[in-house]
Task: inverse folding
């Protein structure tokens, strides 16, 4: 059995497909909104160097990634071990050599990687315009609107993805997610202006 | 040489992997294996199933270890069909 099909079997045994997908969207959304908030605040403050902005965004992205990785791992290990114990008591046997025990060991790792990488990768994608700014030698402020637009686009796409999963109209689901992002921007605007 | 042609096994297994995956994993243990899977009883976390395997030379150890690795527990061998392939 190849590694991929074995991982697929472990995910099916533990019924973790939906959990991994949910974690991806929830923490991806977290990452995108956090980046949007930070970049929006820097954009409105209008007086910070690009190095500071990029450093702050990378710091937040790494922290979100580590938070997602560790929190998902700790909670999933506890859940899976509990499920394994319940199953062992129902089967009245030691299942340490079964695929279920392997799933209890490896599924938390897989889910933690999804949960940690989603906000990290999405955040890095959003700050790409900021990375590229020094190389392209453009005005220091213009990368910020570009990063804000990237964040809004990613949030819209996460909404579309959720809409497709739930079988609802994709455009409506995307616009709903976008509305949440715009409300966030409006709150940040009000708070930083006063 | 005695060849095992048919086995009927009484197995207790968790709900996952499902019957299709369970039967396929057993069939993968030998070319030409014909596996049928019948659920006898369903409980909250487990199900009792009757697995019938037909083949030219069934390898019981491989099947037994596949059942174990998928979380199942072999309760009994309910039916066996063997043949002596050596010419007298």
Result:
């Amino acid at each position: 059995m190849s590694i991929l099909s074995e991982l697929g079997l472990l995910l099916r045994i533990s019924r973790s497909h939906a959990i991994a997908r949910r974690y991806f969207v929830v923490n991806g959304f977290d990452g995108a909104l956090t980046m949007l908030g930070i970049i929006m605040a820097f954009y409105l403050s209008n007086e910070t160097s690009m190095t500071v902005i990029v450093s702050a965004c990378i710091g937040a992205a790494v922290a979100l990634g580590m938070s997602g990785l560790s929190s998902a791992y700790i909670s999933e290990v506890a859940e899976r071990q509990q499920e394994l114990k319940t199953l062992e008591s129902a089967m009245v046997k030691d299942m340490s050599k079964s695929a279920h025990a392997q799933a209890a060991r490896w599924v938390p790792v897989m889910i933690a990687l999804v949960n940690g990488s989603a906000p990290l990768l999405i955040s890095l994608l959003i700050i790409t315009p900021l990375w590229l700014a020094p190389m392209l030698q453009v005005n220091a402020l213009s990368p910020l609107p570009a990063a804000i637009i990237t964040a809004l686009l990613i949030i819209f796409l996460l909404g579309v993805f959720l809409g497709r999963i739930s079988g609802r109209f994709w455009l409506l689901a995307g616009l709903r997610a976008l509305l949440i992002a715009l409300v966030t921007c409006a709150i940040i605007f009000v708070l930083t202006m006063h | 040489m005695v060849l095992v042609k048919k086995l009927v096994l009484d197995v207790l297994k968790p709900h996952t992997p499902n019957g299709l995956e369970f039967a396929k994993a057993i069939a993968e243990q030998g070319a030409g294996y014909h596996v049928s899977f019948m659920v006898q009883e369903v409980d909250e976390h487990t199900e009792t199933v009757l697995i019938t395997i037909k083949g030219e030379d069934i390898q019981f150890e491989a099947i037994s270890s596949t059942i174990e690795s998928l979380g199942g527990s072999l309760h009994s061998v309910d039916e066996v069909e063997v043949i002596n392939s050596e010419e007298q």
